Amino acid sequence: MTLPEIVVWSIPSPSQGTWYIGPLPLRGYALSIILGIVAAIWIGERRWVARGGRAGEISDLAIWGVPFGLVGGRLYHVVTDWQLYFGDGQNPVAALYVWRGGLGIWGAIALGAVGVMIGARRHHIKLLPMLDAIAPGVLVAQAIGRWGNWFNQELYGRPTDLPWALEIDAAHRPDAYPDVATYHPTFLYECLWNLGAFGVIIWLDARLRLGFGRVAALYVMLYTLGRGWIENLRIDDVQLIDVGGLRFNVWTSLVLFVLAAAYFAWATVKRPGREETVYTREADADERAAAAPEASEG
Residue 20: CA atoms inside 13 Å, Cβ hemisphere, count? Predict the structure, then answer.
């Protein structure tokens, strides 16, 4: 007796992206973002302690970095897609509806880094080793967060009939393709790319003992390499879209890749190896006492 052959012709989209527990809405998009943040903090904590940091400090910095990042991500999205909210017939208040989707990664990273800088300064932490510790976990957070686009049936790519094409409901299809049901699953492409980049960075960091911001630079380089080609598959309406024939986010990826590669090369020559300490000053007695129970539990 042989099993019947199973052919997967497409990836189905979820029938709904929101569930209700009584009056409380449970949104797939929000759950994806939250799960990604939790994963990034967990990975960052383990890497930070391995670098010589104290347990719990990544969680402390997340109190600053996460809110700043969410605000930055939303601001980037609203600025680059302003006509969705401030054009004729649009509702400006909808710019606040984060749960409907719309977080620009570069705005999230830029303003999130500002929050991390503020927290690091308060804890007397050197910024570069901190960024090196948390950068790989951010890739995992992005990989998980992209599934929020799947729940919302948004930010997919061009039409395709490949076996792994993504089914999109008629209500979520672009006006240009009302009768086309399957599209490139760009959310899945980016998820897999980010997880692969995470593995590469972890391997290189363990092998080469990277420091002085080179892990963070590798994060930018690998992410932008993937984001560049994935972005070109997308067909969603984005303002600032046609700059020399390329989408604005592709230009952003190109510029950031060059800057990160230049810094990586400079740091490799000028600052090889890894920092001897991750703090700007030694911990005082109260700080050591607070860290002692956490260290003994580990």
Answer: 2
Rounded to whole angstroms, what are the CA distances from 219 to 29, 77, 222, 227, 257?
24, 22, 5, 12, 10
Give the pair of three-digit tokens for residue 94.
Answer: 């909808």
pLDDT per residue over 89-124, tens digit each?
777 777 777 766 677 888 888 999 999 999 999 999
Structure tokens at 148: 């929020």
Q: How many domains does the chain have?
A: 1
Q: What are the tokens at 153?
A: 């049936």
* Long-range residue pairs from 280-284, CB within 8 A, at least 24 positions apart, any chain: 280/124, 280/125, 280/126, 281/124, 283/54
Pairwise CA distance, residues 220 & 223, whole Å: 5
Q: Which among 7, 249, 245 is positioned nearest to 104, based on CA atoms?
A: 249
What range does the domain containing 186 cover? 27-292
Residue 2 lies in a domain: no
Which positions ≥6 away from 38 have C-beta within 8 Å? none
